[in-house]
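Lab meeting, item 3. Inverse folding demo.
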């Protein structure tokens, strides 16, 4: 009992103790919940902390919710610097306090709101909270036994408005962070097992900024340590659920690495299925990102950065572990932008810059993304991205896969603005590593349909391709692809390959290729259905320089065919069609066996323009067929045949026809034949040879039958040639040449005639000891003898010359491998052939040049002599050239006794000096006709570092007879611009100085002139009169001489003269006060002139803004600039212009007016006047409103219209030229040697088109007053006189006919002209052609022509129409005998096209009185002497010269006819003579003999040409005939005043008369008596014939008084209209009786200047009609009133 009692008491006490404890605990808990108690606790705690920390501490409220809740509100902790250390609105922690007793920390929730924390660490490594740790630090206790680790767990965390900063002076980190809201739930938090389960993370609003200083080494080491610590935790288990991030903003700035980055995220959600670090596996169910903006900038850093990183603590490399596996089941990324900028790398100007990226509009929707175990795969449903470079992926869809053995892109759809790729690409391989060993095992299955690739996209990704073709020239090109490729690389099949879109290029092909990648052994079986392209496209495709500049591709081309075989053994059949022409090639080629290659080819070229292909305008289209069949490529062992035919080939605008080639080679021996059968080139050539020996041997024989060089367009002017070429070369090698080439039987023909050429022989002999070359011809001989090799002579000479003067001393020179030594001589002979070949050579004495060269010692000597040479108007006399090597220098001298032409006369010229050590010393001396020294200039020319230095030697420097002083330090340096230093010439106050402003490349060049006479320099090139003259004062500064030269100047030229005309004073002022702007003022004054040019020139764009004011400019002042074509100029010019724009696009506005202008055109001696008209310049070009030119008779020529031009280089014409009876020429023989006279024209011409194709049309008429004389070019008789050679010609040689040349004017040298002009020649216009000025032969023509002349754009001239002659004459002179032929009316020339192919039908008549006795003597056998003597009577004959056929190849025949109406001989004589003439016409040779007998001897020729029965003209008969003429004149003079009112005329004629059969003297007197009646309106004339001497004919009335009667009556008083009645009594020998003729005639007499005036009314008639019309009008008006 008592035991129980004690137990009860004990229990009771324990219960009270426990109850008390619990009560106290509950009391404490309750008290803590009381605000007053809590405040008390708070205050005690604050006081305690402030006492302990010695800093300010404030707590607004403390709430302790035992057993697990602690809340702290409005707390504040201040650091020792009185800055905020920690402050916050609320800190609430839900923790299980009782579990702390069990060594476990279980935090159910953490809730922070409005927290601010500022942490700092100074440079002494002291944190701003270290004082708190020290305040609560206790003494060190003894080490206790280790206890179990505390277990920690956290379930929920909520953060709102958290702001924290961290400023670390050690790590130089400056961190500031603000979290708007963060909450998470943690299902598992096991630190012991490193197992964490976080199903939810939500972060809404984060603003993080971190700045790092220079602490690279520590950062690198720390980074490595952290990374390694994570890698060494394989047991870490982290399970994540959903992660939501929104309104995230992060900024990072690293001063040491100059790295700056920023990130702005609007929203991101991640659903994590698995995050297994041990297995290195990450699987995301969803990855959604919306509106992410990021930037990473790498600023410029110092080079020490790399060293700092390299010096960081070495860390062992981590052992490679299992690769990470990442899966994303679904991804949706929207509105992502990212910018990356590495400022250490210069931005690339084009393309995507991976160091300066700016990505925008990045969107991705896809699923099943996997990156694991060397596999990358996924499905992209939508993808877009844009980059500042221009990359714009508008859409990407595909199923992609990359694995160990295969890869593919299926359901591919990639679209950009330029690119579209569709369908699939799949490859397969045993392994990726195996591809590097055998890429042939790569299998391809690609199907690309309806796709395209934009070059713009390629250039964005690979901008370096921008400078390569085809991207360079076609950067915006789009290539369309339609292709199917299957198989392995070593056996690939291409069923379809279609490409297009790049320009006009398309490709359509198919085939199979086996054996790749070994291209040498690969087999190709390809079919090209079509490849079409253009030249522009091909040039874009291939790299620059691939196609030589000498090749021009066809504008359009297409190719189809096939190719089968290997590259060394193939068969092909290709068909090429181009805009140049077409070609077909069918060939087989097998080179698998060396030296036994097999080949066979057929080539068919149709009308292919080879010239365009070779960029050679001289070559045109070619049509040919050729076949080659052979074995072997080594000519020593090859066996082959070649056959070909060139059907046509155009060269130099001529089409060659029918060239046949046939050749074969068999083991080195070859035979070849070539023939051509062209109308203008006919030849056959046979060649044999052998390649079997060390050197090839060739024999050639060329028979040139005809070569018309003019028709072949190989010679300007007629030239034909034929001949034979024989060549026998036993060794064909430039360094071992033996053989002979001979040209013989050569004949030439040109306009000067046909002539033969002696043979031309070239002989080459080479042995081991000596080489020799020789040339022998009639115009030149040459020999070269020595020991030399032709292929190495040039190199040796260059090396030797470089010893004395080397322009590139730094460039290594190849030394001659063998000695080169030779002597040479050349003699050019004054052969007549040379004068014919070069007509401009008027005089020549033999030219001799001799010399020698030896590469050992680099010695060279040359001696030349040109005694006399006249070429055109240029004369050179006694020129001596000497070059020698002496004292290590090359010494030279050139002396010419006389150099002259119409503008220059240099009586004595010497240039001498030496070349040594890259220095040329020279002395130039000129003397006058009196041997007085006029110019002496000495100096040196040096080559230094690639630049040329010129210096003048001051000693004895002389210009125009006068000594000048020059600075000894003068220098001009050429190379990198022009540099002049102290270059100053001076004399008696006159000077010229040139000085560069600095030694910089292309530095400005200053020129100063003082009282310098222009003629000091110009007088060297003049002869009789000064070219230019005047005095210059001032200075000029020249700039940019190498690129765009500009200058500033202040110059005055006083009394400037050009030729003999004084212009006046010229002032030039150009300044450069504004950069790149030149202000110019130019003024011409004096001599009546006032011209001002003011304005600006802008160097930057070569622009100008100028005002030209021509106040007064005498036309005579500019007369000298017309090269002597104008004289007697008068009047002046006025005008003003505004000139703007630039050089490429000038704009001229203004006008130019001619005031009382007049001048004489010297070559035609015509005076013209300018009638105060003006030329207007506007924004379109030049305008001629009605610009007129008047001749001396005030007849005007008008120029009306416009010349439009955009740049004053290209012109378009719209002009009309009109004139009425304008005298274009009024010259005499002294004025012009080739043409002179008077030429009157009517014109109505139109000029249209432009400079490339001017179009001319209209009418041109040569009027009646024209009297034009044209002198045909005369041959130089001096050449013929010099010849002294009799040339024998085989008249039977058919070549003489083939080689004759014809003049032609069928084509003009002007191309592109389109002209068609109607030409009319008035029948009264007189044209004289002086055929031979020496003997006086001329042709006088009058006639009427209506022609149409034209020129087409190719230059071909045409002429159509008929020129019919009404009268004219041809004067022929032979020795002292002159004969005049009268052109028969009706003769004509008819043009039907080409001017040279006109039809000619001209008959010229020479009339003579000749006895027919010698002509018909063989027909008078047996007749009596009386009858015979009747044939001795002189009767009129007409000798006809008849020209018919082509104009340049007329058929000239002759004929003799009796003049019609021959009444002086009997009918028998006439009939017999006619019969004989008819017989002669059947025998042209006999007829021609009689024709020339009549022309030269004035008689016919009998069987004995030295005797004649026609009788000679005796002295008696000549005296009687002369006396009869004198008596007739005297009788008329005596009778003129014998009877008043009566006119008497006498005609006394004395002749030889054979009409009776015997020679008799016959004298007849004709007397006419006239009297006027009825106020002189009636005139009666009575005449009679009186036979004073001679026998009377049968029935002839020897005296017939008043046998002839005529009466003229004037119907009008002025005698304009008359009536004539007449009676004529005349004896006819053929009728043996008198014949009386009676008749009446009506006569009209009119005066006119022009034929049309005959049909016009006179001025008087017009006045009468005008008066009558006026009176009639008045009467009608009066009636109306």
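The presenter then showed the designed sequence:
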């Amino acid at each position: 009992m008592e035991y129980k009692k004690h137990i009860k008491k004990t229990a009771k006490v324990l219960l009270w103790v426990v109850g008390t404890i619990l009560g106290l605990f509950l009391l404490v808990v309750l008290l803590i919940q009381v605000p007053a108690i809590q405040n008390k606790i708070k205050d005690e705690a604050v006081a305690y902390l402030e006492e302990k920390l010695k800093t300010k501490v404030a707590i607004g409220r403390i709430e302790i919710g035992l057993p697990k809740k602690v809340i702290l509100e409005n707390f504040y902790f201040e650091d020792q610097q009185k800055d905020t250390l920690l402050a916050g609105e609320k800190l609430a922690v839900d923790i299980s306090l009782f579990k702390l007793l069990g060594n476990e920390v279980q935090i159910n929730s953490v809730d922070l709101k409005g927290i601010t924390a500022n942490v700092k660490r100074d440079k002494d490594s002291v944190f701003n909270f270290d004082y708190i740790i020290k305040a609560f630090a206790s003494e060190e206790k003894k080490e206790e036994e280790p206890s179990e680790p505390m277990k920690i767990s956290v379930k929920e965390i909520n953060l709102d408005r958290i702001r924290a900063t961290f400023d670390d002076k050690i790590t130089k980190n400056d961190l500031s962070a603000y979290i708007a809201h963060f909450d998470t739930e943690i299902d598992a938090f096991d630190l012991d097992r490193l197992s964490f389960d976080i199903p939810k993370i939500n972060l809404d609003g984060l603003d993080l900024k971190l700045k790092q200083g220079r602490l690279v080494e520590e950062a690198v080491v720390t980074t490595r340590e952290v990374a390694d610590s994570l890698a060494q935790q394989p047991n870490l288990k982290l399970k994540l659920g959903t992660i939501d991030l929104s309104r995230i903003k992060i900024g990072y700035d690293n001063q040491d690495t100059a790295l700056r980055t920023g990130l702005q995220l609007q929203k991101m959600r991640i659903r994590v299925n698995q995050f297994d670090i041990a297995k290195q596996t990450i699987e995301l169910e969803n990855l959604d990102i919306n509106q992410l903006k990021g930037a990473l900038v790498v600023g410029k850093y110092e080079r020490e950065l790399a060293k700092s990183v390299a010096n960081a603590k070495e860390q062992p490399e981590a052992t490679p572990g299992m690769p990470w596996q990442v899966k994303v089941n679904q991804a949706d990324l929207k509105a992502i932008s990212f910018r990356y900028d590495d400022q250490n790398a210069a931005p690339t100007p084009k393309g995507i810059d991976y160091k300066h990226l700016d990505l925008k509009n990045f969107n991705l929707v896809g699923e099943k993304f996997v990156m694991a175990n060397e596999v990358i795969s996924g499905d992209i449903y939508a993808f877009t991205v844009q980059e500042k470079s221009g990359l714009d992926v508008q859409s990407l869809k595909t199923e992609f896969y990359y694995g160990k053995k295969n890869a593919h892109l299926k359901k591919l759809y990639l679209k950009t603005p330029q690119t579209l790729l569709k369908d699939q690409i799949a490859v397969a391989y045993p392994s990726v590593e195996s591809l590097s060993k055998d890429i042939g095992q790569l299998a391809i299955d690609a199907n690309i349909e309806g796709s395209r690739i934009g070059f713009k996209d390629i250039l964005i990704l690979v901008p370096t391709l921008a400078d390569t073709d085809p991207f360079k020239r076609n950067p915006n090109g789009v290539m369309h692809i339609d292709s199917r490729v299957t198989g392995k690389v070593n056996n690939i099949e291409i069923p379809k390959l279609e490409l297009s879109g790049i320009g006009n290029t398309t490709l359509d092909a198919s085939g199979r290729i086996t054996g790749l990648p070994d291209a040498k052994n690969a087999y190709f079986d390809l079919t090209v259905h079509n490849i079409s392209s253009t030249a522009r496209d091909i040039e874009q495709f291939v790299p620059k320089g691939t196609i030589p500049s000498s090749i021009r591709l066809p504008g359009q081309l297409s190719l189809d065919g096939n190719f089968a075989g290997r590259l060394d053994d193939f068969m092909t059949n290709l068909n090429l069609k181009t805009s140049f022409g077409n070609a077909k090639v069918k060939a087989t080629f097998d080179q698998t066996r060396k030296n036994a290659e097999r080949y066979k080819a057929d080539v068919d070229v149709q009308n292919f323009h080879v010239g365009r292909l070779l960029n050679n305008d001289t070559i045109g289209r070619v049509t040919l067929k050729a076949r080659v069949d052979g074995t072997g490529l080594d000519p020593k062992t090859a066996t082959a045949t070649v056959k070909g035919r060139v059907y046509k080939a155009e060269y130099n605008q001529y089409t060659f026809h029918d060239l046949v080639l046939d050749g074969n080679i068999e083991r080195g021996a070859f035979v070849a034949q070539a023939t051509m059968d062209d109308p203008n080139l006919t030849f056959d050539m046979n060649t044999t040879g052998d390649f079997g020996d060390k050197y090839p041997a060739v024999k050639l024989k060329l028979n040139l039958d005809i070569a018309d060089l003019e028709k072949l367009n190989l010679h300007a002017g007629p030239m034909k040639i034929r001949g034979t070429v024989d060549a026998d070369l036993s060794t064909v090698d430039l360094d071992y040449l033996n053989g002979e080439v001979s040209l013989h039987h050569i004949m030439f023909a040109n306009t000067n005639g046909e002539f033969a050429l002696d043979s031309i022989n070239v002989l080459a002999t080479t042995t081991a000891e000596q080489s020799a070359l020789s040339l022998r011809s009639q115009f030149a001989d040459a020999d070269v003898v020595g020991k030399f090799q032709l292929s190495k002579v040039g190199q040796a000479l260059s090396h030797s010359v470089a010893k004395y003067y080397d322009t590139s001393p730094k460039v290594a020179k190849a030394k001659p491998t063998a000695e080169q030594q030779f002597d040479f001589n050349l003699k050019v002979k004054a052969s007549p052939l040379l004068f014919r070949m070069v007509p401009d050579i008027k005089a020549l004495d033999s030219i001799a040049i001799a010399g020698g060269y030896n590469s050992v010692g680099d010695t060279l000597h040359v001696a030349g002599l040109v005694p006399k040479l006249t070429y055109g108007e240029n004369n050179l006399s006694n020129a001596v050239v000497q070059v020698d090597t002496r004292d290590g220098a090359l010494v030279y001298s050139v002396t010419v006794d006389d150099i002259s032409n119409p503008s220059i006369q240099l009586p004595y010229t010497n240039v001498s000096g030496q070349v040594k050590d890259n220095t040329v010393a020279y002395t130039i001396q000129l003397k006058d006709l009196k041997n007085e020294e006029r110019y002496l200039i000495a100096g040196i020319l040096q080559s230094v570092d690639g630049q040329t230095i010129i210096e003048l030697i001051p000693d004895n420097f002389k210009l125009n007879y006068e000594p000048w002083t020059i600075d000894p330090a003068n220098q001009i340096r050429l190379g990198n611009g022009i540099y002049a230093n102290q270059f100053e010439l001076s004399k008696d106050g006159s000077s010229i100085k040139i000085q560069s402003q600095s030694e910089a490349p292309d530095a400005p060049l200053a020129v100063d002139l003082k009282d310098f006479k222009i003629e000091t320099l110009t007088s060297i090139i003049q002869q009789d009169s000064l070219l230019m003259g005047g005095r210059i004062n001032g200075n000029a500064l020249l700039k940019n001489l190498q690129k765009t030269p500009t200058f500033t100047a202040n110059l005055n030229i006083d009394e400037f003269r050009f030729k003999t005309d004084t212009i006046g004073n010229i002032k030039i002022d150009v300044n450069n006060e504004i950069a790149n702007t030149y202000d110019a003022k130019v003024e011409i004054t004096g001599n009546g002139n006032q011209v001002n040019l003011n304005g600006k020139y802008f160097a930057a764009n070569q622009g100008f803004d100028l005002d030209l004011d021509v106040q007064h400019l005498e036309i005579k002042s500019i007369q000298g600039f017309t090269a002597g074509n104008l004289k007697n100029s008068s009047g002046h010019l006025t005008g003003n212009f505004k000139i703007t724009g630039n050089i490429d696009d000038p704009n001229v506005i203004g006008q130019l007016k001619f005031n009382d202008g007049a001048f004489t055109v010297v070559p035609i001696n015509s005076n013209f006047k300018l009638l105060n008209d003006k030329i207007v310049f506007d924004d379109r070009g030049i305008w001629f409103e009605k610009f007129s030119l008047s001749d001396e008779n005030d007849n005007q020529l008008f120029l009306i219209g416009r010349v439009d031009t955009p740049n004053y280089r290209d012109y378009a014409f719209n002009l009309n030229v009109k004139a009425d009876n304008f005298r274009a020429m009024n010259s005499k023989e002294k004025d012009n040697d080739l043409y002179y006279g008077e030429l009157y024209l009517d014109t109505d011409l139109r000029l249209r088109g432009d400079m490339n194709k001017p179009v001319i049309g209209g009418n041109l008429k040569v009027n009646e007053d024209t009297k034009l004389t044209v002198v045909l070019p005369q041959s130089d008789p001096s050449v013929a006189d010099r010849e002294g050679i009799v040339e024998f010609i085989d008249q039977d040689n058919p070549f003489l006919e083939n080689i004759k040349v014809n003049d032609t004017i069928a084509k003009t040298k002007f191309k592109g002209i389109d002209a068609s002009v109607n030409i009319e020649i008035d029948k009264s216009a007189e044209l004289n052609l002086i055929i031979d000025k020496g003997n006086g032969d001329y042709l006088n023509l009058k006639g009427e022509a209506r022609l149409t002349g034209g020129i087409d754009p190719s230059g071909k001239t045409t002429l159509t129409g008929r020129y019919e002659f009404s009268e004219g004459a041809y004067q022929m002179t032979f020795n002292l005998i002159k004969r005049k032929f009268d052109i028969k009316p009706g003769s004509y020339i008819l043009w039907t096209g080409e001017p040279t192919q006109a039809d000619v039908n001209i008959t010229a008549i020479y009339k003579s009185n000749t006895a027919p006795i010698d002509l018909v003597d063989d027909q008078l056998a047996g007749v009596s002497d009386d009858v015979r003597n009747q044939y001795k009577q002189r009767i009129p004959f007409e000798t006809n010269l008849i020209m018919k056929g082509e104009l340049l190849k007329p058929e000239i025949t002759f004929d003799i006819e009796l003049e019609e109406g021959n009444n002086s001989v009997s009918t028998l004589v006439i009939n017999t003579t006619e019969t004989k003439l008819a017989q002669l016409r059947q025998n042209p040779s006999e007829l021609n003999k009689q024709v020339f007998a009549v022309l030269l001897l004035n008689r016919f020729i009998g069987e004995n040409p030295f005797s004649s029965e026609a009788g000679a003209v005796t002295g008696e008969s000549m005296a009687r005939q002369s006396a009869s003429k004198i008596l007739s004149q005297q009788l008329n003079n005596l009778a003129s005043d014998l009877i008043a009112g009566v006119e008497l005329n006498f005609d006394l004629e004395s002749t030889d008369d054979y009409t009776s059969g015997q020679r008799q003297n016959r004298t007849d007197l004709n007397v006419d008596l006239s009297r006027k009646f009825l106020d002189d309106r009636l005139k009666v004339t009575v005449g009679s014939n009186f036979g004073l001497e001679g026998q009377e004919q049968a029935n002839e009335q020897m005296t017939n008084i008043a046998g002839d009667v005529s009466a003229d009556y004037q119907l009008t008083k002025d005698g304009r209209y008359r009536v004539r009645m007449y009676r004529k009594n005349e004896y006819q020998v053929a009728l043996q009786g008198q014949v009386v003729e009676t008749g009446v005639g009506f006569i009209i007499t009119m005066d006119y200047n022009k034929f049309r005036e005959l049909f016009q009314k006179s001025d008087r008639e017009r006045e009468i009609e005008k008066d009558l019309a006026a009176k009639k009008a008045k009467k009608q008006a009066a009636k109306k009133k």
